[in-house]
User: Fold this.
Amino acid sequence: MLIGVPTEIKNNEFRIGMTPSGVRELVLAGHEVLIEQGGGQAIGLGDDAYRGAGARIAGSAQEIFDSAELIVKVKEPQPEECRMLRSGQVLFTYLHLAPDPEQTRLLLASDAVAIAYETVTSARGGLPLLAPMSEVAGRMSIQAGAHALERAQGGRGVLLGGVPGVAPGKVVIIGGGVVGVNAARMAMGLGADVTVLDRSLPRLAELDELYGPRLKTLYSNAHALEEQVARADLVIGAVLIPGAAAPKLVSRAMLGTMARGSVLVDVAIDQGGCFETSRPTTHQDPIFDVDGIIHYCVANMPGAVALTSTFALTNATLPFILALASKGYRKALEDDAHLRNGLNIHRGKVTYRAVSEALGYDFEPAEKALGGT
Assistant:
């Protein structure tokens, strides 16, 4: 199979969908790989490294979309990329369709097959292609939040770790999943006062077992959330409903209870955000102020540490790319129910229920779309 990897064109997105080592594995398996010229240059992965691994270098994205059977990316296709997709062509990337009606409309119109990294599952019940970037984003959320708390950025001027004689900053993390745990680890490492809220008692018990008194855990309900947000210097939104729009857990009214210059970091912004006042921002212009509260809502946070993120992501995606290329997408999806859960759009049909419910499309089960019963 011919696999194409275009350069990412989203604002300040420097990741790339495949490394030279991934190219080598695919070439050894009998496949061809076409990499857009300069696609990995920003993170030190030059064209010569890709050539040395057996790839061919394409002069443009159009050349890749015109020839490749499988397109591998990192971020959701931008409108101009959606319009280059061909009927029956397979796209494998992050999509985050539920809060994005325009991308969904364009992908349906393309008649392509779109498989989303973020809804591929594992036998353990996890999201193996979302987890690496959730780890990165969780850790970055504290780094970004600590910077936004600096007075020069509009923040309160709080040092999260405090100093002798001065209390540390209070960090509240909404959601105890992969993002939340990684955020908590970073915040605790800085010496902050950290509380995690979650609705899963087993998860809270697991966190208590892991971290003991260093980490406070609370069952998440309206009262606890309002109380904790009001006291927080930094709030991390780390809530995920796989494939669906994020619930709005922090209302605008709640901002009025917070100290001016406190910070909200919405890691759920890819799925629409979990703060009522969130809107997507970029690394170029990452923060904004609502009612005196600083918001950081960058929709591709791991893109800021693109070298680390590229290797973390491609380590996880490569086995699935090999399966899609070696078996063809139909056989690969039929053989692997977890990969099949990644199928969001198939030849003009929405095949992921949460997307259909969020955007009002008819739902067609993946098994039916692939020709099963």
In short: The chain has a mean pLDDT of 96. The longest helix spans residues 306-327. The chain has two domains: 2-119+306-369, 131-299.
